[in-house]
Write a structure and sequence with these properties.
Strand content: 25-35%
Largest sheet: 8 strands, antiparallel
Number of helices: 10
Distance between the termini: 19 Å
Helix content: 40-55%
Number of strands: 8
Order of helices and strands: EHEEHHEEHEEHEHHHHH
Radius of gyration: 19 Å
Oligomer: single chain
Amino acid sequence: MEEIVLKLGHELPFNNVSRLFPETRIYRWCNSQVDYLEFESPDPAELEKIRLRLAEFAGHLHSSIIFSSTNGTVMTTMVTCRCSNANSTVRMTESADCLWKAPVTYSGGYETLTVISPENQNFRNLYSSLKNIGSVDIVRKTRLLPNALRDSYTISLSDLFGNMTQKQAGNLATAAAAGYFDIPKGVTLESLAGREKISQSTLQEHVSKAESKLMQAVTPYIRLYVSSVLRLSTEQNM
């Protein structure tokens, strides 16, 4: 069993939106009934342009908007799901008897899709289907132990962010979207504080506390991952 991270270039609907609005990153969750989307951008004007065209984008999918709300640099949207093998890599993944991990992300006209394949032939079938719609680059392949699949789906948003205050989580999200954690940094804390109209010291405090709480929350999962890697290494050397 393998986990494969793919970078895809194609002209399916959600990816086309990301190509039109390259400053915006799109996160997608789907349960075959509803698509939940988060549009994250450091440019509020770009989010507004997307909002004004939501009905048009939904129409291309023969879908309809259930809910939409904008808060600062993030717009959340729910639309009725009209996914098929013809318009969705998620459905293509399922048709190849593979699993996909949410969220699927879209940025600058490229989709990042993480799939779990039980056998090599399943992934070969999926890869062939994906090649028919555009470019496919394998970013990373990781072998999974049988019990690692269960572990990879146990983490929740409340596990990660439940101990943060709303301001801490909000400022962490804003800093991440603006490129503060990129290498090299895409923005300084000073300029980000000016943009958000708060003091640099307050922003620093919120981001630092959020970072600390996030690391405390994710540490058990890091230990679990390291343990899985060590078990896999031991098995391979036996």
